Amino acid sequence: MSEIIQPDEQNVQEKALQTEQVVVHRTVEYEHKAAGFWIRFWAYTADILILASIGMLIIKPVFRLFSLELNNPVWYAPFSLITALLFYAYFVLMTKFCSQTVGKMIFGIRVVSKNGAKLTWGTVLFREWIGRLISIIPLNLPYLAVAFTPKKQAIHDFIADTLVVHESVYDKTEKHVYEHPAVAKELQEQNVF
Known about the structure:
alpha+beta, 3-stranded antiparallel sheet, 8 helices
């Protein structure tokens, strides 16, 4: 018959304590705070006022100087095409070269890529041209997505994988990593050659 050997009670308690201990590593990260609906609305309003001013101060006088028609109601009228071209060129070029329009500069917000990379031409064109066309067509309703999404993204932000963030306001996030010392020690011992 075989004997059952009982381990020392103190060793059993030490092993139990060792297996019950969990090491918690806390790291604090700061990330730019997402710009919400209202600040983006006011920045867009400032941009529209700037574009309307350019239209009234430059484009309309040129049309009047050459006796061109301004009030043609069709969408493909020269005045409509030039103002649409100005609208999209303004948003595309300002976003590509400055990461923000003048309205966004006034309110201290900017467009950033979700992965942190520099904005590419493809990203900017999808966001500012194709994405805005999609957002504008059904009565500007897709812009309301900013108010209800966790990272305050509009439809054109989802299309281009971008975010609009505050330049100098940050959110603090804490990450907790739980480590079990016995498991970590076993893993280290297994990786030794």
